[in-house]
Amino acid sequence: MKELDWIAVDWGTSHLRLWGMSGDQPLWQAQSADGMGGLDRAGFEPTLLRALGTRLQGPTPVIACGMVGARQGWAEAGYAAVPCVPLAAGLTQAQTDDPRLTVHIAGGVKQNSPADVMRGEETQIAGFLALNPGFDGIVCLPGSHSKWAEISAGEIVSFRTFMTGEMFAALCRHTVLRHSLDGEGWDAPSFAEAVSETLSRPERMASALFGIRAEALLNDLGPAQARARLSGLLIGAELAAARPYWLGRDVAVIGSDAVAAPYVTALGLQGLSAIQTDNDAMVLKGLARARALVTETKH
Questions:
Q1: Cα angle at 18 between 92 and 163, to 5 degrees?
Q2: Minimal CB count within 10 Å: which of 39, 123, 133, 286?
């Protein structure tokens, strides 16, 4: 039976995910909906202890990334300015009361002009580069705030953020479109058509979005078609804006299949064969690299 060496934590705005680690290998995984957005500074340690439960026996180092290091998080971790290696900002130690915990949080990456920031994605990029050290191209990280990062010589050279995932969620829940999206399923032709529409004419997106509701009322557009069309319109507009990043470049997409596969499909429609890699594997490899940095600093 392998022993627990350390705990890897990916703590975002809406979710907490953690793994018990033996070296670079996960022994177990746990998660909760206790994201940074619902906690004050005093709430992070008890939340982590509650998620760990009886798994925490003795003194155990914790390496964390994500919004836990934001200004409203457990401890504010700094930013490194591009161009930089992904973990150039180092790690910040968070204050803890339980003697069994020593918590270090990975810093983020910033871009002064045009202004942009990332937290958590830099750790995934670090993991990807650890596994693909010669990669030169673009890393796309879909999500609530999707990122397109230019990578050269092991450094993040520049990046841009798009609120595509958050816009999808807001449109689904808080607009008239919610009446047309209540259902499951996916329609690939609807997605492909919508991607092409806003990729070529992104200025028409606002009108095309309302068209989803009109099509549902007048022409029986089903929920599967509507959801695929909404996703395609938003991703197509994102690809149009991010064209200088992906056009003619090698692209790797990091994410779970649910969020990454539509981007890979959309890029494929443009004749680009993107590599898809698993989010969990990249974040664990990146956190392992961050842990090595803590160990190197101590010595």
A1: 75
A2: 133
- 142-189 pLDDT tens trace: 999 999 999 999 999 999 999 999 999 999 999 999 999 987 899 999
pLDDT in tens, 75-90: 999 999 999 999 999 9
Which of helix, strand or coil describes residue 87? coil
Look up residue 106 and give its two tokens. 């990975």
- What are the phi and psi torsion angles at 212 (to 5°)? -60, -45
Q: How far is CA 295 from the centre of its chain?
A: 26
End-to-end CA distance of the chain: 29
250 to 138, 148, 213, 229, 240: CA distances (angstroms): 6, 12, 37, 27, 17
Q: Which of 9, 241, 273 is nearest to 148 (CA)?
A: 241
Instruction: Report the C-alpha gap between 232 and 187 in whole angstroms.
Output: 10
What token pair was written down for 27? 């022994």
Neighbouring C-alpha atoms within 13 Å toward the C-beta of 155:
11
What's the pLDDT score for residue 233?
98
**What is the pLDDT at residue 299?**
52
The DSSP bridge partners found for residue 162 are 146
Q: Where are the alpha helices (DSSP H) in the chain?
A: 44-52, 121-131, 164-174, 188-200, 205-219, 223-241, 243-246, 257-269, 279-298
- What backbone torsions phi and psi does residue 115 show, to the nearest 5 degrees? -60, 130
pLDDT over threshold 80, residue 1: no
